[in-house]
Amino acid sequence: MENPITVMLIEDHAGYREVITRALGRTANIALISQYGTAEIALREIQNEKPNEHPDLILLDLNLPGISGLEAIPWLRKYCPQSKIIILTQSNKESDVLDAISKGASGYLLKSATAVQIKESIEGVYNGGASLDPNVAKFILNTLRNRPTGAPPEKTLSAREMEVLTLLGEGLLKKEIANRLNIGFATVAYHIKHIYEKLEVQNAAAAVAKGYRSGLL
Description:
The chain is α/β, with parallel strands linked by helices. It has 2 domains: 5-142, Rossmann fold (3-Layer(aba) Sandwich), CATH 3.40.50; 149-213, Arc Repressor Mutant, subunit A, CATH 1.10.10.10. Helices cover 51% and strands 13% of the residues. Strands 2-1-3-4-5-6 form a 6-stranded parallel beta sheet, with helices on both faces. α5 links the parallel β5 and β6. The longest helix is centred in the last third of the chain and has 15 residues, at 185-199. It starts with a strand and ends with a helix.
């Protein structure tokens, strides 16, 4: 069996930490390797670890005592840049959603998400996709559509890259995009890499957001 996806949980509510621990404990391909009640403790431990000990993915609450989840994102990206971040919170505020994505979060889930949704989101983000709670996704896309468009990116996307970006906006993962467009998985990954470079973003959620802000989508 392949190595499991390693996950760190930063959540101050002990009862919810237990819920996530039980949910992920029943998943063979996901391993919860650490959990912390505050961002300060998590950041301290990360700095003491070797890079190969960092988690593949971090589940991060926003409403934390001390340093908030939003304030922690830049520090987490600095100290463990290879770790992807999924926000797992009760907040569906516009400012929180947009700030989290702009700061580098690859996913945004509400705590009403089921265990299956959380597991699928972890797998999807780990494999290069984005993960947005369905209600949050609908809200953020409507919000971005209704904003004045910004200047288009200097580097124009090709027709195929536009197709891929549009499907990313629909929440599809690389494998699903490959099936939809009848192209190889590696080809999709190649296009996504170039989309990120041209839009100057780091993940799928940010690419979709910029696509709407700039009027590409």
